[in-house]
Design goal:
The structure holds 2 protein chains of 2 kinds.
Chain A: E1 5-10, H1 19-28, E2 38-45, E3 48-55, H2 64-68, E4 74-76, E5 82-84, H3 94-98, E6 105-107, E7 112-114, H4 120-124, H5 130-134, E8 140-144, H6 145-151, H7 156-163, E9 175-178
Chain B: H1 6-31, H2 34-37, H3 39-62, H4 84-108, H5 113-139, H6 151-179, H7 188-210, H8 216-226, H9 229-252, H10 257-283
Helix pairs in contact in B: 1-3, 1-5, 1-6, 1-10, 3-4, 4-5, 5-6, 6-7, 6-9, 6-10, 7-9, 8-10, 9-10
Classes of the chains: A alpha+beta, B mainly alpha.
The complex binds iron/sulfur cluster (2 copies).
One iron/sulfur cluster (SF4) binds next to helix 2 of chain A.
Chain lengths: ~180, ~290
């Protein structure tokens, strides 16, 4: 039994095609304007360059969304996936304010918020998350976060400073990021 | 997302105004018992109590407008075990009950002065507790340095004290203006309350300014807050006008209804601007990543 699932993002191969984002959207049939996975772009001028981080929910060890939600919509499964009971949501948007990674998204038409559930139903059927399966460059990997961390122990603090990511100590996200430009 | 979160602005400001007014009224009853003993004065307090109850109820209802699915509002207490928003919902539900009982006691059972005073005291404490629970909602968000600080609690309490003490001081001054009788002084405790509110609010503004020396999101929040025209109105309408009201009432001790209404509106609008800054300082940074 996996203690905690998580994602690995290998920035070295990502060229910003956003296939993962679109695959997620079509798999989950999210409404207009609601993207559970987004590809953030970073530009540098010394030297000129671009980098991309594809990110959705990080199924944190200390999920801030779960803490603040007044309707108790979030729960953490035994395999670490943070899932939302969408019917219970009252659209207060507290989870959006609290999540350091902007993972939950509000749909003004429905008046509710939703977020990535790591394709829990697909996992339960033994399939991979749709984003992981769809990435043409193999940038996204998924699995037991302990295994992923063993395979590549990138220093999150260094990446946070470089790409102005939120401090991982706030929610302890389950993500491994291999920065662009890192040697094998 | 709306960066000003107006329903939350009006909910918090109106309810804090109501609580501050109850505190200031309790202070007035304590330092000038004549307000409890003299019929015409007590009648002022009775109608003021009803107005305060109305402000608290309207403010509480406005919070519902913040919800995307207001019909599910009853589910907002399911997270009581971990969510400060759930606790805020319960706190304001209870506060409305307490304020209702308080207003009923002031309005109906005016012969029992001791009861009025003790219920006012209890309502004041309940109000302060509810305000602190509100502040915890924002304090709980560890990823926003502008909210995750005790300055949030100070900000909310400062708003209550400033608005409440200005309201009751102006009420006394208008009463004295209408009586054409030899005028007593406005109680020093009320004027001190106004100045305390100004001072605490000034502390909050200074803390925002200090934020530009911070790091990351705090710097961006501080720049957004300080660079906004709303800050100018908070300083002029809240800090400067508040100080002028206290000084004027110290010297003059009466004011016309029109004058009092204008001053009240200026200070109230400054408090609204201050609260808009509180929300926009964080929400204008969205997405934070
Ligand atoms: S990334 Fe955000 S939404 Fe996902 S578990 Fe962490 S705090 Fe919650
Ligand atoms: S928007 Fe919905 S899921 Fe998010 S905190 Fe509010 S009730 Fe919970």
């Amino acid at each position: 039994m996996v203690r905690q699932y998580g994602f690995l993002v290998d920035m070295r191969g990502c060229y910003g095609c956003k296939t993962c984002s679109m695959a997620c959207k079509s798999e989950n049939a999210t409404p207009t304007g609601v993207l559970w996975r987004r590809v953030r772009e970073f530009t540098f001028d010394d030297p000129n360059g671009m980098a991309f981080i594809s990110m959705s929910c990080n199924h944190c060890d200390d999920p801030q969304c779960m803490k603040v939600c007044p309707a108790d919509t979030y729960s953490k499964r035994p395999d670490g996936i943070v899932v939302q009971d969408h019917d219970k949501c009252i659209g207060c948007r507290m989870c959006i304010m609290a999540c350091p990674y902007n993972a939950p998204v509000f749909d003004p038409v429905e008046g509710k918020t939703s977020k990535c559930n790591l394709c829990a139903e697909r996992l339960d059927e033994g399939l991979k998350p749709r984003c992981v399966e769809s990435c043409p460059a193999g940038v996204l990997q998924f699995g037991d976060i302990d295994e992923l961390r063993k395979r590549y122990s990138a220093d999150l603090s260094r990446i946070e400073t470089h790409y102005k990511l939120p401090d991982h100590n706030i929610s302890h996200p389950n993500i491994v990021i291999i920065p662009a430009g890192d040697k094998e | 997302m709306s960066e000003y979160e107006l329903p939350l602005v009006f909910f918090t400001v109106l309810c804090q105004w109501a609580v501050g007014s109850i505190i200031a009224m309790t202070a007035l009853m304590t330092v000038q018992p004549i307000w409890l003993n003299e019929e015409t004065r007590f009648n002022r307090l009775r109608y003021m109590a009803l107005a305060i109850l109305a402000i608290n109820i309207v403010g509480s209802f406005l919070s519902l407008l913040h919800l995307g699915s207001p019909l599910g509002a009853y589910r907002a207490i399911l997270g009581l075990g971990h969510s400060w928003l759930s606790r805020e919902v319960v706190a304001f539900f209870l506060l409305n009950g307490v304020v209702f009982i308080w207003a009923a006691v002031v309005f109906r059972f005016n012969r029992n002065r001791a009861l009025v005073k003790s219920v006012s005291f209890v309502a004041s404490l309940a109000g302060i507790a509810a305000i602190l629970v509100s502040a915890q909602v924002y304090y709980q968000m560890a990823s926003h340095p502008m909210w995750h600080t005790l300055i949030t609690h100070l900000n909310f309490i400062a708003t209550a004290i400033l608005l409440g003490f200005v309201t009751i001081s102006l009420m006394v001054a208008v009463y004295q203006y209408r009586q054409h009788a030899p005028q007593g002084k406005i109680p020093g405790l009320l004027l001190t309350g106004i100045l305390l509110g100004v001072l605490l609010m000034f502390w909050v503004v200074l803390w925002y300014s200090h934020g530009v020396n911070g790091q990351g999101q705090m710097v961006r929040s501080a720049i957004a807050v300080l660079g906004s025209g709303l800050m100018g109105w908070l300083i002029f309408g809240g800090l400067i006008t508040g100080t002028c009201v206290a000084t004027y009432l110290y010297k003059q001790s009466s004011i016309s209804m029109v004058g009092a209404t204008v001053l009240m509106l200026v200070i109230l609008s400054a408090a609204v601007c201050g609260r808009m800054l509180f929300y926009s300082g964080v929400m204008s940074q969205s997405p934070w990543f």
